[in-house]
Design brief:
Elements: H1 10-13, H2 16-19, H3 21-24, H4 34-43, E1 56-62, E2 67-75, E3 81-85, E4 97-99, E5 109-110, H5 120-126, E6 136-137, E7 140-142
Parallel strand pairs: 5-7
Antiparallel strand pairs: 1-2, 2-3, 3-4, 6-7
Length: 147
Amino acid sequence: MNRCGVSLHVKDVYAELFASWSDRFIATETNPHAAADAYLQFSRGFSLTRLQGLYTQEYHRDHERGIGSATVRFPLACGGWWERLIDRPERFGKQKARFSYGGHYRGHWWQLPDTRAYSHAALMSLVSTPSSRPFAFGRCFSLFGLI
C-alpha cells in the first residue's frame, strides 16, 4: 500500500480527459447530445435518468476570440435559456456559462419538472446567507446546481 500521503485530483493528473467533451464524445444522429450527456454524467456526477429530454447540446461561438465550445443548454420558464460551456471553458476567461441574449430572467429559475415550485421569498428562506447561495445569479436560480 502506498503511504506517501499525496492526494491528487484526477482532473489535475488527467486533464485531457476533461478538456474537450465534444472531441471525445461525438454527436451523432442517434445521440445528438453525446458530449452534453458525458459532461453531465462524468464531470458533474449526475444520473441522466431524470434529465433526459430536459436539455440540449448546442454550440457557442465567441467571434471576438475566434473560439467556440459545445454547451449544455437548459430552457428557462421565462422563454430564454441558460447554457454551460463544456469544451475547455478556461479559454473564455471567467465566462463559464451564458444566458440567452436579451432575456428577462428576474424571478425565474430552472428546476426539474417534478420538483415543487417555490416562490423567490421561499427560496431565500431556505438559505441563511448570500455565501450559502452557490446557485444564485441575482434572482435567477438553478435548483439543480449546474450553474
